[in-house]
Amino acid sequence: MSAVSEAEVLEALKRVVDPDLGGNVVSLGLISGLVVKQGNVGFAIEVDPKEGPRKEPLRKACEKAVEALPGVLSVTAVLTAHRPAPAGERPRQAPPQGQPASAQRPEIPGIRAIIAVASGKGGVGKSTTAVNLALGLAVRGLRVGMLDADIYGPSLPRMLGIAGKPVSKDGKRMEPMRNWGIVAMSMGFLVPEDTPMIWRGPMVMSALEQMLREVNWGELDVLVVDMPPGTGDAQLTMAQRVPLTGAVIVSTPQDIALLDARKGLNMFRKVDVPVFGIVENMSYFSCPNCGHRADIFSHGGAKRTAEELGCDFLGEIPLHMDIRETSDGGEPIVVSRPGSEQAKAYLRLAEMVAERIERALGEQAGRAPRIVIQ
Ligand code: ADP
Predict the structure, then answer these.
(1) Measuring from atom 8 of ligand 1, which residue has the nearest CA?
(2) Per CATH, which fold does 107-367 belong to?
(3) Contact 328 CB / ligand 1 (< 6 Å)
(4) Rounded alpha-carbon distances, angstroms, from residue 186 to 27, 111, 316
(5) Whole-angstrom Cα distance, residue 324 to residue 337?
(6) Which of 257-261, 283-287, 304-308, 353-357 has the lowest mean pLDDT?
(7) Which mutation among 250, 254, 319, 324 tests ligand 1's pocket best, with the greatest number of atoms within 8 A of CB?
(8) What separation in Å is there between the alpha carbon of 126 and the centre of ligand 1?
(9) How far apart are CA 277 and CA 44, in angstroms?
(10) Strand order in 31-37's β-sheet?
(11) Which residue intervals of the chain bear CATH 3.40.50.300?
């Protein structure tokens, strides 16, 4: 069976009519972000923010039309608003059919909040941002842990400058590793760096579940999860199974146009995880000699995209030699050069993320059932 093409998907979607607008979804321009990869199809349907949940039948009709095509293995259609929603608003989509999203994500005792740092693709500086954000949160007095969920290319041991293997005190749970005032766990501590790892889907999830739940994290205010790059099935499963309080998406100015950040955003929205916002990394070039600033990648794309997508813009991190040297050398800039402009950019990011964590926890508490004692 040959794989389905984008043109075939669009052709099928042309048969779906929006009864409110009186036209097919393709010619009305409602379809965006179409991705077709080996039979797996994903796209967004743009709707008026006020209409959100009422458009669920339209979303289902689109999914059904595409599912019927030969060669289609899975279809993921999400509703997105074409006008920016107020900052910090919760996603409009219902959790995936069946159980509420939270039912699949048991909480982890002792950990107040878990946030994901994600990117649409590799090499955008996701891990560097995650590490400096985590240390920035620790500088603010929070008790912070980091979980390196990128099991194919774990970089946390190197970036945090930690060597050695974790031990278990009780024979059941591993003790996390520790440096710069935070605790961390990574597959890189368990398997030597040059050992090739071949993981199949279910193994990935069970390794991650173990690193999440069978580690003695202690009492943490926030666990920062450095997600594997991309927005494929492994990432989606993680976003679904880890009890995430929110997500931060890292993007470079060049990738913004390539929809990568949008894919990340839609992935979290689909599983009902609030997206705290987008950070623009390598936003502008900051010359290490004279401090001169050059916008080599026409910076500012992330800000515009965030506005378009109705999520917050969490600031810009310059492209600077010191960031690369310190993160690759195991002495992240937030702790090794805290007074530098670059460290300050991460500290501002940490401040914004800390605020959003509190807001999200407050909202969650507001939604939880209350026990009334009479
Ligand atoms: P990812 O996790 O997205 O694959 P990394 O965080 O590993 O990306 O970063 C890739 C490379 O880019 C690393 O060598 C890192 O030091 C460097 N890097 C990341 N962000 C910056 C930045 N703002 N300025 C300079 N170098 C950076």
Answers:
(1) 125
(2) Rossmann fold (3.40.50)
(3) yes
(4) 47, 18, 27
(5) 13
(6) 257-261
(7) 324
(8) 7
(9) 18
(10) 31-37, 40-47, 74-81
(11) 107-367
Per-residue DSSP letter, 90 = P
Q: Where in the chain is the domain with CATH 3.30.300.130?
A: 6-80
Residue with tokens 């095509």: 69
Decide if pLDDT at 225 tops 90: yes
Instruction: Give this prediction's pTM.
Output: 0.72
Q: Identity (one letter) of the amino acid at 219?
A: E
* pLDDT tens-place string over residues 155-201: 999 999 999 989 988 888 899 999 999 999 998 888 766 665 565 66
Q: Which ligand 1 atom sits nearest the alpha carbon of residue 281?
A: 23
Are the beta carbons of 166 and 177 closer than 8 angstroms? yes
Residue with tokens 């916008």: 295
Nearest CA to 252 among 126, 76, 95, 84? 126
Parallel, antiparallel, or unpaired for β 220-226 and 144-148? Answer: parallel
CATH topology of domain 6-80: GMP Synthetase; Chain A, domain 3 (3.30.300)
